[in-house]
Design a protein that fits this description.
The complex is a heterotrimer of chains A (about 290), B (about 325) and C (about 300). With about 290 residues, chain A is α/β, with parallel strands linked by helices. Chain A contains ten helices and ten strands. Chain B is built from twelve helices and two strands, in the order ααββαααααααααα. The chains are: A alpha/beta (about 290), B mainly alpha (about 325), C mainly alpha (about 300). At the B-C interface, α1, α3, α4, α5 and α6 of B face α1, α3, α4, α5 and α6 of C. The complex binds adenosine-5'-triphosphate (ATP) and magnesium ion. The site of magnesium ion has 3 residues of chain A, from α1.
């Protein structure tokens, strides 16, 4: 059978001909966001609509996500934050009846990641995801982190060990688990499990990491650790995080997107957005008048 | 467009994704078909499909083999004849005596198993403390783990003679003893599945009754039992289907003579026991009598098919309601 | 109308009575079973601890008769059955639970499996007789017996596999997919390993069912007097394995017991009882293993 990784992505992401160059905010291309954010875009969402069967959950979203930044998605419950996030790694493909319209381009390759010709499995090797509830595999701590590496085609056990350690260090978990790597992941606390899930997602070195309310099941101390982690990680990759916690969005994100009823109402640099919301709806949401 | 605020477009959804040849990138292996994945899915499908092949095989074999039988015995005579005497000259192939045997033994078994199984189910689901249930349920399920040939021995060697002492002049091998032992065997089928059904009734419903001051008994029979009725029905039907198809107990202990009667104290022969009898070599292979086991099997299959599908539909309805 | 305290007393009394009745009904089944088992042991204990009983073939002389060939036959039969039914049943269960699209065909396959689970075992015997023995002209061999029993227990394996898979939370699947796993990788590395316990439990139950089953074997004509063992599966010369035993005629424990029951002499009835005790010990111990396994599993895994 096919092993993913047998046709891996190039080690260096060399832009190719016939690939449109990454747009930047200075050229004011589609869906660009406010000033003050780095010019190079990692993801550009263009005219994205999404349907759960007959039900439309996203309406013509336009959004740019710059490289090495944290983008927060906020909005009242049911507005489509999770739906957009799961478009970004094509999680929706797992269930029948779901339909994307529009495009999401990933740069520097310039590929439309929701295109029919794109293999979702290979795409997901490049876009990691951390879920709302910690969901480690019922395997050992080591095996949890190693799983993605093996999927990506890594075979040498010394290399795997190195990468596992590196990922666990990046997830600020190494010191707590280095003596018990063979133990079941279920022996960890909730906060540790969530950091293990982050380590697991980091191990294949994705370019983008998606978080869906990663701290909603955790206590304040664990939450703070994960927020620190998100902040550190953005030096290495691009992060999109869904959160219900406005302070969290303010603390960790560079840009914030406010959704309402499946529409992107406003996207802006976080400080701008929180201080001078452009839309009436946004300011009412931010001041807690609904949602 | 410098703002991400959705422009007031006309609300038509952009269904036409423009063809974008440039989006085909070699980086992504161009949506490489995963032949291995396809192959695996195919093999798994084949495995699932084998179950369908088995059913089709059963139907085909039963129809095919019994067609020789029905060429020499009219279907009407088969279905309405009151004498089953395949070894007589001329032979008689009236299925009614065998049907009587099946109906009587099944009826006796249900008379034993339905009340006991239902009461056990209510007790386990509504009354028994956790520890008691954890112990009694698997223990009771062992009843259905005992080989039926052993149950046949019980019925023939212990229950039959005991009944002989109770009722004067009945034969040692009779349908009553076989039916009773069969009932014992199917108690767990009925109790376990009914209990599962009752326990999946939401607590909220019970709380409604308790809040009105009802006791457990009233709650169980007036609220939980009706709410779980389709699930319990499917348990009953599974029990009936088992009883109809049970073979060894009746082959050993029911007497082995075709008998056009509904009196359980008489000896009898069921459809299943007849098939075993013939298989033991009473009739020459290839004879009409021998082929009759396929006709009998066909009838048996049709009966149980009806019950099985009814049970499936009830179970499904029950699952959907909770 | 009764006063409230009286009413409450009455309601409580009802409850107490029903609790007693329920416990009594539960125990009726168990106690009856115990009485019958006691009878079986009383009738059959003479030869139970006699090594010759296990080392001798069935014989026309009761004093010399033993269960060597049925015991070996049953074990080999269970082996063939499991080997056929488990891969097939697990694959079918995985397909239905993880791959099958929700459509009319899948529903039909499901109805079909539900029906197969309730088809009387003797019908499987008729199927094997018609298709394998008449149709393909196979002998009444261990292979044919194994195929028959495998088809019989296939629904049990499928259903337990599906239940085990259903117990795995969707989050586990999504986590694996999010790392870029293909469907088969998710199935092979996660779903099947995590459901092995459940599958094993179901397999053991199915095996116990197959060990006790006799009607379909009688239909294919396995009720014969067998005083030899199948050729051994291992040879001293290359290729060291030998599949001739699959084509060997066989008898099995329940069939031998039936044989002895149907003889009029009391000595054979005692032999039947002894065989019954052995058979029950085999099936009950398998069930006990399954119960323990299920219990341990439930305690160990909390998703
Ligand atoms: N599987 C599904 N099938 C059909 N509709 C769905 C499905 N999942 C979500 N929806 C609908 O799509 C809309 C957006 O849901 P989504 O889960 O993206 O909201 P959300 O913004 O993440 O909300 P929350 O903050 O509560 O997590 C909602 O109206 C929801 O009811
Ligand atoms: Mg959400």
């Amino acid at each position: 059978m096919n092993e993913p990784g047998s046709t891996p992505w190039p080690k260096e992401n060399v832009p190719r001909e016939n690939v449109s160059p990454p747009p930047s905010s200075s050229t004011a291309s589609a869906g660009s966001i406010g000033a003050g954010v780095d010019a190079n875009c990692k993801l550009v969402v263009r005219d994205l609509s999404f349907f759960y069967g007959p039900k439309q959950a996203l309406k013509q979203i336009n959004l740019s996500i710059p490289q090495n930044t944290v983008t927060a998605l906020i909005g009242p419950s049911g507005c489509g934050k999770t739906t957009l996030l799961r478009c970004l790694n094509r999680m929706h493909d797992l269930y029948p009846g779901n339909r994307y319209v529009g495009e999401i381009r990933m740069y520097p390759e310039g590929i439309n990641i929701i295109g029919r010709d794109v293999d979702p499995m290979e795409m997901r090797l490049r876009v990691g995801m951390v879920f709302q509830k910690p969901n480690p595999f019922p395997k050992s701590i080591f095996e949890n982190v190693a799983f993605g590496l093996r999927l990506a085609g890594l075979r040498s056990s010394t290399q795997i060990e190195e990468r596992v350690e590196k990922s666990l260090r990046s997830a600020a978990l190494w010191d707590e688990v280095k003596d018990r790597l063979k133990e079941s992941a279920y022996a960890l606390s909730g906060g540790q499990q969530q950091r293990l899930c982050i380590a697991r997602a980091l191990a294949p070195e994705p370019g983008v990491l998606l978080f869906d309310e990663p701290t909603s099941a955790l206590d304040p101390a664990s939450t703070a650790r994960i927020e620190d982690l998100v902040y550190e990680l953005k030096d290495r990759l691009t992060i999109v995080i869904v959160t219900h916690n406005m302070q969290q969005a303010a603390r960790v994100s560079d840009q914030t997107c406010f959704f309402y009823h499946g529409e992107l109402i406003e996207a802006n640099a976080t400080s701008e957005m929180f201080e001078h919301p452009r839309q009436e709806l946004t300011s009412r949401y931010l001041t807690g008048q609904f949602g | 467009m410098s703002s991400a605020t959705p422009e007031p477009r006309d609300q038509q959804v952009a269904t036409a994704v423009k063809p974008r040849p440039d989006s085909v990138s070699p980086l992504f292996g161009s949506g490489r078909p995963r032949w291995g994945e396809r192959l695996v899915e195919w093999l798994l499908f084949l495995a699932a499909f084998i179950s369908v092949v088995v059913t089709m095989g059963i139907v085909a074999i039963l129809l095919w083999e019994s067609s020789t039988f029905f060429r020499s015995v009219p279907t009407l005579e088969f279905l309405t004849g009151r004498v089953w005497a395949p070894t007589f000259e001329p032979p008689h192939f009236g299925i009614l005596p065998l049907l009587c045997g099946t109906v009587v033994t099944t009826g006796v078994a249900l008379l034993v198993a339905l009340p006991i199984g239902s009461i056990v189910a209510v007790y386990m689901s509504e009354y028994a403390p956790f520890a008691v249930r954890e112990f009694l349920k698997p223990t009771l399920e062992l009843l259905s783990a005992i080989p039926t040939v052993v149950y046949g021995y019980f019925a023939l060697v212990y229950v039959g003679p005991t009944l002989q002492r109770l009722f004067a002049d009945i034969p040692g091998a009779n349908m009553l003893s076989a039916g009773m032992v069969m009932g014992l065997m199917i108690i767990p089928y009925i109790s376990s599945l009914s209990e599962d059904a009752m326990r999946s009734v939401p607590m909220l419903l019970r709380e409604g009754a308790y809040a009105l001051g009802a006791n457990r008994l009233i709650t169980a029979f007036k609220v939980v039992y009706p709410a779980a009725l389709s699930g319990i029905g499917s348990a009953y039907i599974l029990g009936i289907s088992r009883a109809i198809g049970e073979t060894m107990i009746v082959a050993i202990a029911a007497g082995g003579q075709p008998n056009f009667t509904l009196d359980p104290r008489q000896p009898g022969l069921t459809i299943t026991a007849y098939i075993v009898q013939v298989s033991m070599g009473d009739l020459p292979r290839g004879s009409v009598g021998y082929q009759s086991i396929f006709a009998a099997g066909l009838l048996l299959f049709v009966f149980t098919l009806g019950f099985n599908i009814l049970g499936y539909l009830l179970r499904k309805r029950f699952r959907e309601s909770y | 109308m009764a006063s409230i305290p009286e009413l409450i007393v009455r309601l409580k009394r009802q409850d107490r009575w029903f609790a007693v009745l329920g416990l009594a009904c539960t125990l009726v089944g168990l106690v009856t079973l115990l009485i019958l088992l006691a009878g079986l042991i009383r009738d059959g204990h003479h030869r139970l601890f006699d090594p010759a009983f296990y080392a001798s073939f069935p014989s026309a002389r009761a004093a010399r008769a033993g269960i060597l060939s049925p015991l070996v036959g049953s074990i080999l039969l269970a082996f063939v059955t499991i080997l056929l039914a488990v891969p097939l049943g697990v694959a079918a269960g995985v397909y239905l639970e993880e791959y099958a699209p929700r459509n009319i065909w899948t529903t039909l396959i499901e109805i079909n499996i539900a029906n197969l689970a309730g088809v009387p075992s003797i019908i499987f015997g008729l199927l094997a007789l018609g298709a394998l023995i008449y149709g393909l002209h196979l002998d009444r061999s261990l292979l044919v017996g194994g195929i028959t029993l495998a088809l019989l227990i296939l629904p049990i394996v499928i259903v337990t596999t599906r239940e085990a898979l259903r117990a795995i939370p969707q989050g586990i699947r999504e986590a694996a997919y999010a790392l870029g796993a293909t469907k088969w990788q998710v199935v092979r590395h996660h779903l099947i390993p995590y459901s092995l316990g459940g599958i094993a439990t179901g397999t053991i139950i199915a095996m116990s069912r197959a060990l006790g089953e006799s009607a379909p074997l009688m239909t294919i004509g396995a009720l014969t007097f067998i005083t030899f063992l199948p050729p051994p599966p291992i040879r001293s010369q290359p290729p060291f394995v030998n599949f001739q035993w699959l084509n060997s005629e066989f008898t099995a424990m329940p069939i031998q017991m039936f044989n002895w029951i149907s003889r009029p002499q009391a000595e054979f009835s005692a032999l039947a009882a002894t065989a019954g005790v052995v058979l029950i010990l085999m099936t009950l111990s398998l069930n006990a293993v399954a119960i323990i396994l299920r219990y341990r599993l439930r305690k160990r895994i909390k998703w």
